[in-house]
Write a structure and sequence with these properties.
alpha/beta; 77% helix
Amino acid sequence: MLTAIFLIAILVGVIGVLLLAIKILQDTLQKGIQETRVQVKEALTHYSDDLGKRVDSLTITTDARLKEINHQVEKRLTEGFEKTTETFSNVIKRLALIDAAQKKITELSNSVVSLQEILSDKRSRGAFGETQLSALIRNVIPEQHFSLQATLSNGKRVDCILLLPEPTGNIAIDAKFPLENFRLLMDSSLSDADRHQAEQQFKIDIRRHIQDIAEKYIVPGETADGAMMFIPAEAVFAEIHAHYPDLIELAHRAKVWLVSPTTMMAVLTTARAVLKDAATRQQVHIIQKHLHLLASDFERFQKRMDNLARHIAQAHTDVEQVHTSAKKITERFGQIEQVELTGMTPEVSLTTLD
């Protein structure tokens, strides 16, 4: 019975201790929680202040950056507006230039129409071909080697004659050319029958013109064995060579050479080379004379060079002999200095040396 009471008392004591420990633990936990709350509150306050400062700094930085971006955008927009204004100004100037050029083109078109009206007349067209031929020849051939509107011994007057040396001889050039049927042939509104008729008439005109040039401007003993038919239009020249080989063959047989402004320039360049070669051949005797004189001068130069070489060799020999003599004299003085003066008093020796 006492043991049970003792055990109960012990149990009550243990329970009391446990309750006290629990109370102490509860107090400790409450105090720790309060301290944790205080620390959390302080940390939150600190973080809030720090976050506010960072937000304020970020706001200031953002404002500054936005102001800078705004300034850059305004600057770029201003530059863009200036460039756009300049571009529009240049466009307006270009449009003004284009307008002026268009007016000039219109004037030129009117001039071309007027030129076509002028060239529709046969005599005016002939004068135009002669003027074009004259300009080509004057730009390449010297004045003394051609003659315009020259009269041949048969009484025929040729538009131009090239005065070339033999064996080429004088070459007559005719600048007149029939263009009526060619212009008709180029008309796109013609029917096939009319076009065929215009083509046949064009061939007849060219054939007759080739024969006239061969009969009038090829004079044996006075001109070369051929003459030139100047075609003032490249299109006509190309049309003949492209579609009328029989006319080209006829011209070759008649020794009439068809030339356009482009091929005429090549012919004139060749003629100028022939003239230059002839002038060179005429001056050959003068060149030979100067070559002989040059040979004589070189022979005299060779003789004088040989004499100079002999004098130089003799001078070299003399210099070597003088050098040998100088060496011998130097050796003699050395031998004299090495001689011992015996049997003389110093005074006598000094007197003798003096």
